């Protein structure tokens, strides 16, 4: 199983770094009206966060469900922002309901388990749902794959945090 | 060769053996007649049933084994409900007969029939391959399970079992020798042999005290074709219907992944149980996501200097890890010795006196100051995040953060993190701070 998990290799790191820095320069290139106002900072923060997530997901390409889900989410969100809300909202809600349907189905499947430890299992299932919310794209996955995705996601998140820290330090010097 | 009929047996389980032998022979006929592909799942089920029985048998049933040696279970088994019921029946009987003590068998090693149980799991084997390697030999077209009764050991060493070489006449499909080997290796966990070469893994399966020396093993060679589903053999003393088998496979997969996650998430070694582990995992993922948000906020607040050169950043950052991580390694060992919070005091004092924007800039200055001390860059970054855990009591910091969040609320409907839980989780982060480098 370990072989199936991609270790955040240096190629992943370099890919993420290049993309993220590129996006960062783009964001910083915008001339803000009042550079130090909280509002402005917050706007930039949002953009940077989006850029970070996007660059991470693009570095992983579409190999993982969570990266696909993240990219899809970001793209649909940008589409929503660009187009009028009314037009696109139907698309978004339909996908959401289909996702919920899938999620219901998977959680129902999980309920069909041996009844040895009911309470423990119930708590377990509740936590599994919580994990599903955290990991992007986790709603439509059974527990086994969810744990897989979580492991890879954790690895990529730690890489992301490391690299961003280094960038921050570089900025701050 | 002690291919005596079951009449030789004087034990009470003769009926069982007789029945088993009859079934085996009938099955043998069936197999020899048919040339079609087996149905893997059914076959695995059968083998599961059979192996569970086989292990139940006392080793002393040598003569029974001899008859069983003729037993042929090939992949050409036709899913026959009659056979299935017979197997199930035998299984039941076997369960009942498990309690019987060793029978007085003193058969010599005349049997050249071998057992090689293959755990028909397509997962990679985790059983010692030594015995299986020699045990599995593909010598013919027919895939046959043969048993070898090695009763040389005698009754004393009933626990140790071994797989001997396959019977030449009855051979596994030669096409997939590798796969057969793998199966045999996998099956070694179920393999029981009279000799003591076998690892003790089979002993674990042997719940009951098997006092007889001989063992029965089925070497079931799997199909030539690569099956696209997973074979699982029922362990001894466990239910063998397909639902529980599948359930067990699923559970094993999940526990495997949980173990892997346990290695990934720091500080999870003491926690046992899936619920606690999941809690930790959820917390860790949340904290990582919050760190990303925090760092991006920091990036947003830090204004790039005009002389900022992105190429320098590339040069330093893309080939970074070696250069900057060496000091980190050294520092982390140092940190382990010194309580890291001692060094946070100056930072804390600096920060507590500033507002948010000012705070960040001064934090940067403080970082630089600490950097001039024997603190490496990654350590500084660690310091950056971890020190906030110490700043909790600082009211100004919280106020500034609150301001930022209020702005956020004004701007957008939803805020990624409210302030209180944010600081709370920063406290949680303490445990992971040192390990994130």
TrEMBL record, chain A:
Keywords assigned by UniProt, alphabetized: Transcription, Transcription regulation
Biological process annotations from GO: regulation of DNA-templated transcription
Superkingdom, natural source: Eukaryota
Start and end residues of each IBH1-like N-terminal domain: 10-77
Name used for this protein in its record: Transcription factor IBH1-like
Species annotation: Durio zibethinus (Durian)
From TrEMBL, chain B:
Ranges of compositional bias, category Low complexity: 195-204
Domain of life: Eukaryota
GO cellular component, one term: nucleus
Compartment(s) of residence: Nucleus
InterPro entries recorded: bHLH_dom, bHLH_ZIP_TF, HLH_DNA-bd_sf
Keyword terms of this UniProt record: DNA-binding, Nucleus, Transcription, Transcription regulation
GO MF, one annotated term: DNA-binding transcription factor activity
Residue stretches making up the BHLH domain: 238-288
Claim: Lyase is one of the keywords in the record: no
CDD domains assigned: bHLH_AtBPE_like
Gene3D superfamilies in UniProt: Helix-loop-helix DNA-binding domain
Region (Disordered): 184-228
Basic and acidic residues bias locations: 217-228
Protein's recorded name: Transcription factor bHLH63-like
Record lineage: Eukaryota, Viridiplantae, Streptophyta, Embryophyta, Tracheophyta
